[in-house]
Amino acid sequence: MSLQRRLGVLALAVAIPVFLAGCSHAVFTTGGPPPPNTSPMILTMHDSNAPVSGVTVTAFEATVTGASLTPESGTPVSLLSASQKIEFTQLQTNAVYLSTTQVAMGNYKSLGITYANPQYTIFNGTGASLTIKGQTCAAGAECVITSPTVDNVTGSVTFSSPIVVQQNNQTLIEVDVNLNDLIQSTFDVDFSKSIAATVSQETNASAAIGDPLRVSGQVTAVNMSSSQFTITPAIGPQLTITTSGTTAFEFGGANCTNNNFSCITASQIVDVTFNIVANGTSFDATEVDFDDVGTTQQVSGQIVAMDAVPPTILTIVVHNTIPPVASLPNGSLATVTISTSVSDPATYVVNNGSFVLPSSPTLSFASTSDLIVGQEVEERVASGSSISNGAFTTDRLALEQTQLQATATNANATAQPPQPSFVLSSSSSTNPLPSLFVNNPLGSVTQIQVLTIMQGSPVLTLFQALSPDSMSGITSGTTVVSTGGFLFNTPAAGSPTIVATVVRGVM
After folding, report:
1. Reported pTM
2. What are the DSSP E strand ranges found in 125-250?
């Protein structure tokens, strides 16, 4: 698999931070050659989240219905041609591409985003029951709030200095939204709170703009002559992805010895890391990883409860399904039984693609003993079974990237071998480790060790929104980070361990 975190539009890209790891998707272009005196603008979205004290937001979904760019004089410009449903908790260290729009040259002072139909799922770690819109959420329970009160449906940001759109500039706007501020102490949702934007410009239309994005989805078309394929992501619009001689292919699970573009076939489920090209109409793959054949059903989500240690049954908060499953919408709770059938026992895999995990400490994901609350896991519905009343049996569990936010402590930039590290702790006075870990009835987790990879892998840990973008940008006890990576149960180390693919500073 790959790694990254944003939501965007070309010529203007918006990134929204959320308590999640992230998905991305959606391309809206104007079609045909660009009109004269215009420049492409790309929009992406991000999320960074620190919930109400004692509450962990495990899912947050809303529909982005509009995005408008306001010039210093004149009429606002719409950047979104179609509504886009987003699962924000998966954008904490990733981003979602929204659209590319040709925008007239000039100076633009602000951006507005309009939303509809929010719903969220929380873990109540406050130690007491909560009442939310007449719904009782017991202590230690996961609760789905399907129709929260919405105080404001629009969020806006005024740029510190106007965006200057010129003929030869491609512009990307990334918008970050902090769920900790969107969800009020009353549990109302107010989209007018806490929106920030980062603007990037590029004069070379064929260069990459912004950081890579990651999507998971099903291949719907393959064009061998152009080395392109079309993917329908779990979240977001359909994308046509271009591959090249520099694209890495991880297709061992498909038994494709060529391990190149010829391995891609229609209906496959794949994970793709790609760059947005500054022209706003092209997407170049840096890595394509085979996940499974198209006849399977995948359900991905965060483990929020287990029946025992080691478990036989998991409760997950659903973050996406491939292909889509109407009965398991994002944010719903699913009960997953781990197959112990002699003929079809559950297997285990880590979806790390070309990202090489360290040899120390010992990292294992091979049995039920390696499962812990908080892990993001993709479960395959067992052959011959089906999803019924929110429950199913799985015959394969794939470790995905967990995304969480907390204050970094015990930062060690010189750890040897070169695995600079820090700790996410429950003892932090601000932004402590989420209560989902701390108040786990099967065993409280009060800290998580975070390892970063600086050498020995084709893909290294990516540092973002820090100053500088490295371990040196982390100040122990002060810097709040969203961390995306593979969460392992490492009892010998004294606490679980995340091998970070992305470390992103929280605004």
Report:
1. 0.90
2. 130-132, 135-137, 142-145, 150-152, 154-165, 170-178, 189-190, 195-202, 208-223, 228-233, 239-242, 248-250
φ/ψ region of 492 (left if φ > 0, alpha if ψ in -120 to 50, else beta) reads alpha
Contacts of 257 (CB under 8 A, 6+ apart): none
Q: How many CB atoms lie within 10 A of CB 322?
A: 22
Tens-place pLDDT, residues 114-169: 999 999 999 999 999 999 989 999 999 999 999 999 999 999 999 999 999 988 88
Neighbouring-strand partners of residue 247: none
Question: Would residue 1 count as lying in a domain?
Answer: no
CB 41 within 8 A of CB 197: no
d(CA 410, CA 449): 9
Do 245 and 187 share a domain, yes or no?
no
Same domain (yes/no): 266, 277 = yes
Q: Please indicate, yes or no, if residue 277 is contained in any of the structural domains.
A: yes
Asked if the structure places residue 262 within a domain, the reply is: yes
DSSP, collapsed to helix, strand or coil, labels residue 66 as: strand
Question: What is the distance between the alpha carbons of residues 253 and 348, in angstroms, rounded to a whole number?
Answer: 13
Q: Does 40 lie in the same domain as 174?
A: yes
Q: What pLDDT score was predicted for residue 46?
A: 58
How many structural domains does the chain have?
4
CATH code at 224? 2.40.50.320
β-pair partners for 144: 121
The domain in which residue 435 lies consists of: 402-505
List % helix, strand, coil for the chain (3-state, nearest 5).
5, 50, 45
pLDDT tens digits along 153-212: 999 999 999 999 988 889 999 988 877 788 888 999 999 987 888 899 999 999 999 989
Report d(CA 110, CA 175) in Å as an integer: 12
Choose one of 176, 204, 232: the last residue of a domain: 204
User: Chain centroid to CA 284: how far?
Assistant: 19
* Length of the chain, in residues: 507
